[in-house]
TrEMBL record:
UniProt KW keywords: DNA-binding, Metal-binding, Nucleus, Repeat, Transcription, Transcription regulation, Zinc, Zinc-finger
Compartments reported by the entry: Nucleus
The protein, known as: Gastrula zinc finger protein XlCGF57.1-like
MF terms (GO), sorted A to Z: DNA-binding transcription factor activity, RNA polymerase II-specific; sequence-specific DNA binding; zinc ion binding
Domain of life (superkingdom): Eukaryota
Annotated ranges, domain C2H2-type: 50-77, 78-105, 106-133, 138-156, 157-184, 185-212, 213-240, 241-268, 269-296, 297-324, 325-352, 353-380, 381-408, 409-434
UniProt keyword Phosphoprotein present: no
Compositional bias (Basic and acidic residues): 14-23
Record PROSITE patterns: ZINC_FINGER_C2H2_1, ZINC_FINGER_C2H2_2
Gene3D superfamilies: Classic Zinc Finger
GO terms (BP aspect): regulation of transcription by RNA polymerase II
Family per similarity comment: Belongs to the krueppel C2H2-type zinc-finger protein family.
An annotated GO cellular component: nucleus
């Protein structure tokens, strides 16, 4: 049955085209036969006398020109009372209202699927007829035009606020929300609002737990396609982002941007309390905890708290005895990767970090930073109890125990407790050495 309908549809289309062609030729003949008086029974074509000053496009009616001008000015006088979204044309608002009412008056006669907009139904009908008027890949002229811009680089839609150009009007509309702060898409679960429908869709998965994208290599699932694509690089080894300065390559563009700052010296993230600057936002967040005293990561074994998760993980290995990082030269093992890297330099003799003041060299950057403070006299760590200042964070932590009375180090022989590890070691040598 459906096949017959399709065939009829195609036949009717051809018949309509033939009739229209005949009408056009008749119209042309009659126009050619108009007498000297210039009179004709046929209605004359309307002259396009209203021209747009921005792009020179012409219109037969003034109200059409006025509507067109809104594509340049960005004016949207028609507002949806339901969600606050605004439109440049009243017809667009009417179509939008159907998304709230659920009305879909346009029904496909072949498969009975319904649509809110007539244009959507027309595009759908081409899936039945197989018609693709505009090249082999596009069923709508607008889609073809938008695609062609990916080749030409044309960006005809410009933001009035920042002059940024866009290849599609929809992209400009979305971009404008970064200036207006408009967030028309709202999560029904937690009321959080979003700029685009795509952002809302991704957010909803945090409530539903849906992870529709699966890695075929290891079975890991992801809530976003982009995250899965990035993950796939761990299997393929692909590193598409390359530093032009040193040739180092990265899986993520964000990692490349962070790396470039090691060449430029740029530190865009600054602490409001001490004005110290950082290359990465995460480093600033961790630094701020040295001022606030916040230690969000807690050891379940002994209750000790840490500023960073990596510090907690390293600490936990002190309980488990795990030392996953092994030196291939001497088989010595370490709890932290940075400790292994520093140790490896004792074999190579490498000391890449040099003090500009006295030329003393160091194997690790943190040792150089501590050393530089002996020249500058800087003491960035302050005790909240007595305002005493220290050049190293470890010294401040040790000092704080004089206020708290904390003694975290216990002698295994006599159970005596100490506030400092060095004091306990001295005690062990003097009191329990054989």
């Amino acid at each position: 049955m459906s096949y017959s309908l399709i065939m009829v549809s195609r036949a009717e289309t051809k018949q309509f085209a033939d009739v229209k062609s005949g009408e056009d030729s008749t119209y042309t003949d009659q126009q050619d036969n108009v007498g000297d008086s210039g009179k004709s029974d046929k209605k004359q074509k309307v002259k396009k006398q209203h021209s747009c000053e921005q792009c020179n496009k012409q219109f037969g009616r003034l109200d059409h020109l006025k509507t067109h001008m809104r594509t340049h000015t960005g004016e949207k006088p028609y507002r949806c009372e339901e969600c606050g979204r605004q439109f440049s044309q009243g017809s667009h608002l009417k179509q939008h209202m159907k998304t709230h009412t659920g009305e879909k008056p346009n029904v496909c006669k072949i498969c009975l699927k319904s649509f809110a907009q007539t244009s959507a139904l027309k595009s759908h009908m081409k899936t039945h007829t197989g018609e693709k008027l505009y090249s082999m890949r596009f069923s709508r002229l607008g889609h073809l035009k938008a695609h062609v811009r990916t080749h030409t680089g044309e960006k005809p839609y410009t933001c009035d606020k920042c002059n940024k150009g866009f290849s599609q009007l929809a992209y400009l509309t979305t971009h404008m929300r970064t200036h207006t702060g408009e967030k028309p898409y709202r999560c029904e679960e937690c009321s959080k609002q979003f700029t685009t429908q795509g952002e809302l869709t991704i957010h909803v998965r945090t409530h539903t737990g849906e992870r529709p994208y699966t890695c075929k290599e290891c079975g890991w699932t992801f809530s976003q396609r982009s995250n899965m694509r990035t993950h796939m690089r761990t299997h393929t080894g692909e590193k598409p982002h390359r530093c032009e300065e040193c040739g180092k390559q990265f899986c993520l563009l964000s990692d490349l941007k962070k790396h470039i700052r090691t060449h430029t010296g740029e530190k865009p993230y600054s602490c409001e309390i001490c004005n110290k600057s950082f290359r990465e936002k995460g480093h600033l967040t961790i630094h701020k905890r040295t001022h606030t005293g916040e230690s969000p990561y807690r050891c379940e074994e002994c209750g000790k708290q840490f500023i960073t998760l990596s510090h907690l993980k390293s600490h936990v290995r002190a309980h488990t005895g795990e030392k996953p990082y092994k030196c291939e030269q001497c088989s010595r093992q370490f709890r932290e990767l940075c400790s292994l890297k520093a140790h490896m330099k004792t074999h190579t003799g490498e000391k890449p970090y040099s003090c500009e003041e006295c030329s003393k060299q160091f194997t690790v950057m943190c040792s150089l930073k501590k050393h530089i403070r002996t020249h500058t006299g800087e003491k960035p760590y302050t005790c909240d109890a007595c305002s005493r200042q220290f050049s190293e964070l470890g010294h401040l932590k040790t000092h704080m125990r004089t206020h708290t009375g904390e003694k975290p180090y216990t002698c295994e022989e006599c159970s005596k407790q100490f506030s400092q590890l060095s004091t306990m070691k001295t005690h062990m040598m003097r009191a329990h050495s054989c």
